[in-house]
Amino acid sequence: MSPTAIPLATASLVDALYSSMRTRIVNGDIAQGEKVTENRIATEYDVARPTAKACLERLIVVGLLKRSAHKTAVVPILDSEDIEDLFFVRSLLESAAVTELAVKRIPLQEILRTQGAIESAAEAGNFQDQVAADVDFHALVVRQAGSHRLLRAHDLILGELQMTMGLQSAHKATSAGTIAAEHAGIIEAIEIGDSNLARQRMQMHLDGARLRILSSMRDAAQDSERKPD
């Protein structure tokens, strides 16, 4: 192994590679608009080209990378219209999911474990772990609803959702415990079987996230305009 190669966990190699690349993109270590090639992945991680290709294709499927015909894959650049559209679709899907969970009183053991991880990360002030647990929470909410088609639709926007969750200035605009508390409120509504309350709390939670992201993007644009050429 190359002495500068980035180490991977001992799991399925493609899964571990995908997890590492996902984290780097979500956290902005690989920036929006940056190119990502099979050769780059293979070189940085010291893996075979077929392994790098499998990871690259998986990142494209979930939307963390975009690739036009005969073009190099790049991390997509999201503008305010993308955010509005993304949250429009996200709200439809995740509100439907929590409604189904509440109506069917589906057990929430996995979701509760993820909630525990969010709360622990918030208490420790570990932003990256909080984002990772936040990603898992929302993905699990949709998966636990039990609709393969709902899950497939959510998977199509999952990568872009993960990118928005990793916008540090947006997420850090609220207190560390806010997201955990909002998730706890959603869980409470599901557990008591109140589908309307669950849907309302999910919608409020997503509206807050959307507004923070848009505000962060406006602030970044203004900072860029104020910088001298």
Strand content: under 5%
CATH hierarchy: architecture of the largest domain: Up-down Bundle
Number of helices: 10
What is the makeup of the main sheet?
A: 2 strands, antiparallel
The CATH C-level name of the largest domain is Mainly Alpha
By CATH, the topology of the largest domain is Four Helix Bundle (Hemerythrin (Met), subunit A)
The helix content, as a percent range, equals: over 70%
What would the principal axes of the Cα set say about the shape? Answer: globular
Q: Element order, helices and strands?
A: HEHHEHHHHHHH
**Strand order within the widest sheet?**
1-2
Question: What is the count of β-strands?
Answer: 2
Return residue spans where pLDDT drops below 50 for at least 5 consecutive residues. none
Arithmetic mean pLDDT: 87
Structural class: mainly alpha
**End-to-end span in angstroms?**
43 Å
Please tell me how large the radius of gyration is: 18 Å
Q: Name the CATH superfamily classification of the largest domain.
A: GntR ligand-binding domain-like
Return the domain count.
2
Per-chain topology:
Layout lengths: L12 H14 L8 E2 L1 H8 L3 H13 L11 E2 L5 H25 L4 H16 L2 H18 L3 H18 L2 H4 L6 H14 L3 H32 L3
Antiparallel strand pairs: 1-2
Helix pairs in contact: 1-3, 2-3, 4-6, 4-7, 4-9, 4-10, 5-6, 5-9, 6-7, 9-10
Provide a descriptive summary of the structure in words:
- There is one protein chain.
- By secondary structure, the chain is mainly alpha-helical.
- The protein folds into 2 domains: 62 residues, Arc Repressor Mutant, subunit A (Orthogonal Bundle), CATH 1.10.10; 147 residues, Four Helix Bundle (Hemerythrin (Met), subunit A).
- The chain contains 10 helices and 2 strands, in the order αβααβααααααα.
- It has a two-stranded antiparallel ribbon.
- It is globular.
- The termini are far apart.
- The mean pLDDT is 87.
